[in-house]
Amino acid sequence: MSRNTRRAVVRRESAHQHFSVLQIHERDDLEKIHPIGEIDLYTAPMLRDAIADTERRQVPNVLVDMSEVPFLALVGVQVLREANERSTDEHRRLALVAPTHPVRRVLTLTEVTDELEIYVTLPNAMSALTRV
Question: Which architecture, in CATH terms, is 9-130?
C-alpha cells in the first residue's frame, strides 16, 4: 500500500458510547477490526456485526485487534469462536491480537487458544497475515 493511500475506516458505536468498533481497510486482502471497550452481552453483537460485514465482502484476512479491550465475556469468546469456524470453512483467515492480560486469561480459561490464531503484538500479526 502506498503511503498516500487513505485507509477506509468504519466506526460502530453503542448507544451509550462506552464501546465502539473500528473497521480499518488495511489493504486489499486485509481488514482490521478494532473493538474499544468491554465486550459483554450488550456489546458482543456489534463485534459480531463487524465480523459479519467482512464475511459478506469475503475479505480474505481479518485481524481482530483486542489491544483496547479490558474485559471479554464468554459471549465475546463465542463470537470469535464462531467467526473462526466460518472463516476456516470458507478458506479465509481470522487472527486475533490479544495483548491485555484479562483477554488472554479468558481465552486460556475457555480453552480456545488452540482453535484461534492469536498474536501478542500487532506487528507480529500483521507480518503473519502478509505471508501466504
Answer: 2-Layer Sandwich (3.30)
